[in-house]
Specification:
306 residues; 5-stranded mixed β-sheet; PHYIP/PHIPL_C; FN3_dom; 21 strands; Immunoglobulin-like; PHYHIP/PHYHIPL; mainly beta
Length: 306
């Protein structure tokens, strides 16, 4: 039996869902029992098509009326480009499948979070942030080559910093590399810095991540964040605070029960801090590199595009 597949159409795109449909030849439409859908991030150029007998890394869905909604269980991320292709299949009495050829590959981009969605995430993150503990430094771990290149530029490019401090010392383990750039907190976070909430998520673990953005007031990064991300009170929020003491000095606190990743929007001059090798292990279980968000977590997921 030969099955035919025509052009794909993508519609109703949100930050974590979309609808997909395609025209099918009437000669095979009534016999189709399943859809095989291959979805990949666009930067992954290596094809990952699968046969129905392989371990299914892509969706095998029972045939339903089109358009079909594909949502959160795909680990869809906001503002991300994807490619999608489809096969149709008819299950035979012996359990095998007759399948069509793969369709053309379609590219699309998911939508951004709306302000309402980000505020929902913010409220969920605030609920589990926990008590505030003092800290004094921000730090970033990377491989040696990263800092060698940074020395040539004399600055660390805008990127994620970590700052969690335990017992007044930074932890000696990191998933990102054995070399650490460390800088006093007041050099990046002070009265001239605005703070924004960026995201809240987990990756099939009991601990959760909160992404914050620090932007010098009036900088290009600050202008970009205004109106796009929820602004937080610098001295009174649930995640990261900067307050002035009676003597004019600044004190800093961070939330205990979430892992904070802080994005600083401007390059940071290496002269302002120190680079050294840590003595601990590279805890890859904490790495967010190529990690997938848990779409079933009731703590950090919101209903979008339903």
């Amino acid at each position: 039996m030969q099955l035919y597949l025509m052009q794909i159409q993508i519609s109703n795109i949100t930050c974590d869902s979309f609808k997909i449909s395609w025209d099918m030849d009437s000669r095979g439409r009534e016999r189709i029992t399943h859809y095989f859908i291959d979805l990949n991030k666009k930067e992954n150029k290596k094809e990952n098509k699968f046969k129905h007998k392989d371990v299914p890394t892509k969706l095998v869905a029972k045939a339903v009326p089109l358009p079909m909604t594909v949502r959160g269980h795909w680990f869809l991320s906001p503002r991300t480009e994807y490619t999608v292709a489809v096969q149709t299949a008819a299950k035979q009495p012996d359990g095998d499948y007759s399948v069509s050829q793969w369709s053309e590959i379609i590219e699309f981009c998911t939508a951004d979070y709306s302000t309402a969605h980000l505020n929902q995430l913010l409220q969920k993150a605030e609920a589990i942030a926990g008590r505030m503990l003092p800290f004094t430094v921000f730090y970033r771990n990377q491989q040696r080559e990263y800092f060698q290149q940074a020395r040539c530029r004399r600055s660390v490019p805008p990127n994620a910093l970590q700052h969690r401090v335990q017992h007044r010392k930074t932890p000696q383990d990191s998933p990102y590399g054995p070399y650490r750039f460390q800088i006093q907190a007041d050099l990046l976070f002070n009265h001239n810095t605005n703070i924004y909430f960026g995201d809240f998520y987990c990756m099939y673990t009991s601990y959760h991540y909160v992404i914050l953005v620090l932007a010098p007031d009036g900088s290009k990064g600050d202008v970009f964040c205004k109106g796009r991300l929820p602004a937080l009170d610098r001295s009174n929020n649930c995640f990261l605070t900067c307050t002035e003491e009676d003597d004019g000095s600044l004190s800093f606190c961070h939330a205990q029960d979430v892992i904070l990743e802080v994005i600083y929007t401007e390059p940071v001059d290496l002269i302002l801090g120190t680079v050294s090798q840590i003595s601990g292990h590279q805890l890859m279980s904490l790495s967010t590199l190529n990690a997938k968000k848990d779409p079933s977590c009731k703590i950090c997921n919101i209903s979008v595009g339903r």
